[in-house]
Design a protein that fits this description.
heterodimer, A: two-stranded antiparallel sheet, 4 strands, B: 4-stranded antiparallel beta sheet, elongated
Chain lengths: 588, 434
């Protein structure tokens, strides 16, 4: 029998005196409350176009916290969305058939293009307050965060072993309880890791979300992104450096204080019992929290409150139990009887079809305003950007593939570098764009080529990450075999590392190309030190249409980009991925 | 204890599933079975005969497409509250402690406070897990985990205990220990459990536990035979009466598993059993070492360390190739089988090729290939297999056909092009170059 590890005896709660950790927690709580209050005050601030951004270093912490609050708020909304969406898609086959393709499209189209419409719509809802602008910014961050979370939750639900579901059903758990205690915990690991990626993705358009021009209106929100763009406008290099430093500090803090502890904590929710390879990750923050008495005490208080609430609710239980089934009879009849079910499904399909038709009609009205010349312009710009995107993918692969193999091959190197790369990759590339542009100007390279470098910045990490994890997952025995048979290093790469990394490389390409397309909107049209830098391309066309409030052209650009990205994903990447899996997949 | 009133009853139950590839799988067809109070019923049969499906229907975890499941004469609506279930894979929530896992079913049954704590403590004590209340499942061995599974089921004091291969993942020693405990739990009036339904793969287990053994046939699942086991509890595994009962069940199983006496529907084609080349040669090799080259199929299964439905599939394959015959439950090596084992590899392949070409399924395939000028697309073959064998996953049958075809150098398969080619056919070379 295996040796058993006995859990440490629990100390009776509340007997220990407060420790340092508890004081820290209290301070932290106070800080969070203060932040929420000040953010809410800002939220309600009377609307004034173009908030004045104070470029002094003292104002930076406040701006950083504002931006962070937006990101966290958007992430919370994304999680709620992901839970609802994933659950619906995994539970109902009809919903699945509709929602999955929708998700696939939503995550591959350039959502930035919807910003103007969103802002105008929300501004008209809240004309006198800043709320509209804030909501628009949060929603834009949400659109960069939500999709992979939803997909991850859906996949976890689908992968849940049937016996576990059966066990919950046999135990008589209501669906709500199964959701809380089986479905969400089983998906926790995926949700946390994807939350990390989402948070990083959400920062990508920070600068644009917080400060952008629409026609002759200048919309700004206080935040680190707008700080950076004002600094850029004024050519204030000290402020730029400060903004970048603040961003790095924020990313490191979020990583250490939020994600690391979460990652370690969700190890508990692993379904398979393998350790996942390598030593268990650790987090000093979580260790610190675990040592603290306060959370345990809070749990006791919470349990006590819950019990009290249940006791208070007991008189209500009986009438509810009597009335509940009567209330539920209608929906149950509708769900279980074939005729209302068919009618309901028909109505749902009709509603979806009507909405789609209406959307297509509105889009058609917009696009009908475009002339032949403009269409020609759109197509030639798209071709240019397409070439840049492919170039960016090739350049990224050229450095990230060998680097990824080298890092992934050595567990020690991977362990040491992974957290560093993670932080670096979370840094929003567009914030570095101006620096790169200034550098290129000095060497004498125009934005036409420079945009490729910017797209590399936007997409390279996906390739690197995927290659590292694929190479790290190669079974030790295969590596041993190449050693035993004394393969020269070139043959080793050719026969083992590159084929094993290939399926992951293709996955990396899909995301990197998506990132590059998105990046083109910022990379091909940039305001540096008061000068507008533009190069022809679909991205600059979209940015330009936004700046001049040319909605038909904007709609055309977005539609074309979405079409290209989705079409390319569906046709090229997908067939390549299928081939890579069947030919080079390690699991047979 | 003598069987009493009917507790659970399946009436003309049919169950179908849609497979991911769009095929419809009929797991059960027109199955009727009644379980009485104080009974222990074992469901046995080859894998894929729908015995686990029937168990899930009894638990109310699924609804039959056709027919009814009754509990005490009442049609089942939703999960059966009077039953608890034990799973082959334990199905413990890894993030809950042993005590929390055991508590799972109590809350929904309205057991609260002190009563709940008592019930948990009693169930944990019954399975001998005291001291492990705060352990997490991953800290326990397989046997301990299954004890938690039993404790969780016993905590709700169920009238009926449904067990889906409860010892399937445990080692023999743990199994022996746990299953005598199951009998004790059933006989102990304090547990509240008075009826057991157990799905099992093991003949000994069925004879050890059950008062009635129901034998299932497959494709689609149906009840073939029932055997009453009147041995008194506790049963002694080494006693001659026990051995005799095991032999009787073996004989019944052999009669139902080996050459299907009368197929449910007349089929023109006989599917080739899904076994590998090496398994058949392994069987022949083993038969050569036995006196007269023969032996009962269950003894062979035991000697070779495979379960009996796997063994009987291998025997069926060897029989289709004419290398063994099966009078009764005895497997007898034929003269052709002896000859083929004496041959060298190349000659053996030639003989196999000749035999396979006569096997109806391969003969049909070869015909298709000749029509297609030596090459046929995979999809076409898969579609053909699906039509003829709707209840067998076409992909796995296809994989076996390719393996045997390749071994006998009768067929080749180009995985990249997704095409099957006939070897030794003048058109085939061109088709492959193309």
């Amino acid at each position: 029998m295996k040796t058993l590890r006995f859990p440490p005896a629990l100390a009776p709660p509340g007997l220990r005196r407060l420790g340092l950790a508890d004081i820290a927690i209290l301070c932290l709580l106070g800080g969070v409350i203060a932040m929420v209050v000040s953010f809410a005050r800002e939220f309600e601030a009377p609307f004034s176009q173009a908030v004045r951004i104070d470029l002094s270093p003292a104002a930076l912490p406040k701006y950083t916290l504002y931006s962070l609050s937006r990101g966290v708020l958007a992430l919370l909304i994304s999680y709620l969305f992901a839970l609802g969406f994933g659950w619906a898609a995994a539970t109902s086959r009809a919903a699945e058939r509709l929602l999955l393709p929708l998700l696939d499209i939503l995550q591959s189209i350039p959502v930035l293009g919807f910003l103007p419409g969103l802002v105008l719509g929300l501004m008209s809802l809240f004309p006198t307050r800043n709320v509209g602008l804030e909501l628009a910014a949060i929603l834009m961050i949400f659109t960069a965060q939500a999709w992979n979370l939803a997909l991850s939750f859906y996949n976890s639900l689908r992968a849940l072993p049937q016996p576990l579901r059966d066990a919950c059903k046999v135990a008589g758990w209501p669906p709500g309880r199964t959701f809380r205690q089986l479905e969400v915990p089983a998906a926790a690991q995926g949700l946390v890791w994807n939350g990390m990626l989402s948070m990083a993705g959400g920062w990508f358009f920070l600068m644009v979300n917080e400060a952008f021009r629409l026609g002759n209106h200048d919309y700004r929100l206080p935040g680190i992104g707008s700080f950076m763009s004002v600094a850029l406008d004024q050519g204030n290099s000290q402020a730029m450096a400060l903004a970048i430093a603040a961003m790095v500090v924020m990313i490191v803090c979020v990583d250490q204080l939020l994600w690391r502890p979460l990652v370690v904590w969700v190890e508990k929710f692993r379904l398979d019992e393998s350790s996942g390879g390598g030593p268990a990750p650790s987090s000093w923050v979580l260790d610190f929290l675990r040592r603290a008495r306060l959370p345990r005490r809070a749990a006791v208080l919470q349990r006590r409150a819950y019990r009290r609430a249940r006791r208070a609710a007991r008189p209500l239980e009986r009438p509810f139990r009597a009335v509940g089934p009567i209330i539920l009879r209608g929906p149950r009849f509708a769900f279980e009887h074939p005729v209302p079910r068919k009618i309901g499904a028909g109505l749902a399909i009709a509603a979806v079809a009507a909405a789609a038709a209406l959307g297509a009609w509105r889009l058609w009205l917009l696009l009908a305003q475009l002339g032949w010349a403009e269409w020609g312009e759109l197509v030639s710009s798209a071709a240019l950007t397409f070439i840049r995107v492919m170039g960016a993918v090739i350049v990224s692969t050229a450095w990230a593939l060998p680097a990824g193999v080298v890092i992934g091959r050595s567990p020690r190197l991977a362990r040491a570098l992974q957290p560093v790369i993670q932080v670096v990759a979370s840094f929003p590339a567009p914030m570095l764009f101006p620096l790169v542009i200034l550098l290129f100007e000095r060497i004498g390279v125009g934005l036409g080529l420079g945009a490729v470098a910017l797209m590399v910045l936007a997409g390279q990490w996906y390739i690197l990450f995927n290659v590292i994890s694929a190479v790290a997952a190669i079974p030790q025995q295969l590596k041993d075999a190449t050693t035993v048979f004394r393969l020269p290093w070139l043959a080793r790469w050719r026969s083992l590392y590159l084929p094993a990394a290939f399926p992951a490389l293709v996955t990396g390409w899909v995301t990197a190309a998506g990132g590059a397309w998105n990046g083109s909107i910022v990379a091909e049209y940039m305001n540096v030190a008061g000068r507008l830098q533009v190069t022809k391309g679909l991205g600059s066309l979209i940015s330009n249409a936004t700046a001049h409030a040319n909605f038909p052209l904007l709609a055309g650009g977005i539609a074309l980009m979405s079409l290209i990205v989705v079409g390319w994903n569906r046709v090229v990447w997908r067939s390549l991925m299928g081939w890579a899996q069947s030919r080079f997949g390690l699991e047979t | 204890m003598t069987p009493g009133a009917v507790l659970l009853e399946a009436q003309h139950v049919t169950q179908r599933f849609r497979l991911p590839n769009g095929q419809n799988l009929e797991a059960l067809r027109d199955v009727s079975l009644a379980v009485r109070e104080h009974e222990v019923v074992a469901l046995v049969g080859p894998s894929g005969c729908g015995k686990s499906t029937l168990l899930r229907l009894f638990a109310g975890l699924a609804r039959p497409v056709d027919g009814k499941v009754l509990y005490r004469g009442q049609s089942l609506d939703g999960v059966l509250g009077a039953a608890a279930m034990v799973f082959q894979t334990f199905a413990l929530l890894p993030w809950l402690t042993v005590a929390e896992n055991v508590t799972m079913g109590l809350e929904a049954r309205g057991v609260d406070g002190a009563a709940r704590r008592d019930a948990v403590a009693r169930a944990i004590n019954l399975v001998g897990l005291d001291g492990f209340e705060q352990a997490y499942p991953k800290e326990l061995s397989g046997g301990m985990k299954q004890r938690v599974g039993f404790a969780r089921a016993l905590a709700v004091a169920p009238e009926i205990l449904l067990m889906d291969e409860p010892f399937g993942m445990l080692d023999p020693l743990t199994t022996e220990n746990l299953r005598s405990q199951v009998v004790n739990l059933w006989r102990d009036p304090a547990t509240g459990v008075n009826t057991l339904v157990v799905v099992t793969h093991s003949v000994e287990e069925a004879v050890f536990l059950a008062g009635r053994v129901v034998v299932f046939g497959s494709n689609p699942g149906h009840v073939r035979e029932e055997m009453v086991n009147p041995l008194p509890y506790p049963r002694q595994e080494r006693s001659p009466e026990f051995e005799e009962m095991v032999d009787r069940l073996h004989a019944i199983l052999t009669a139902t598993l080996l050459p299907e006496p009368a197929p449910a529907t007349p089929q023109r084609l006989v599917p080739f059993p899904r076994v590998h080349v090496s398994e058949v040669t392994g069987l022949l090799d083993h038969l050569l070492t036995r006196p007269d080259g023969k032996g009962p199929v269950f003894e062979l299964a035991e000697d070779l360390g495979v379960d009996y439905d796997r063994m009987s599939a291998v025997v069926r394959a060897a029989e289709q190739l004419g290398w063994v015959t099966t009078p009764g439950e005895i497997v007898q090596l034929t003269a052709a089988g002896r000859e083929v084992m004496a041959m060298d590899d190349a000659a053996r392949k030639d003989v196999t090729r000749a035999r396979l070409a006569k096997q109806p399924l391969f003969a049909r395939l070869v015909g298709m290939l000749k029509e297609g000028d030596g090459a046929v697309e995979d999809e076409e073959v898969l579609a053909d297999l699906t039509i003829y064998f709707p209840f067998i996953p076409a992909e796995s049958l296809f994989a076996i056909v390719v393996e045997w075809g390749r071994y006998a150098e009768l067929l080749d398969h180009d995985a990249d092009a997704g095409r099957l080619t006939l070897l030794g056919w003048e058109g085939a070379a061109e088709a492959r170059v193309e």
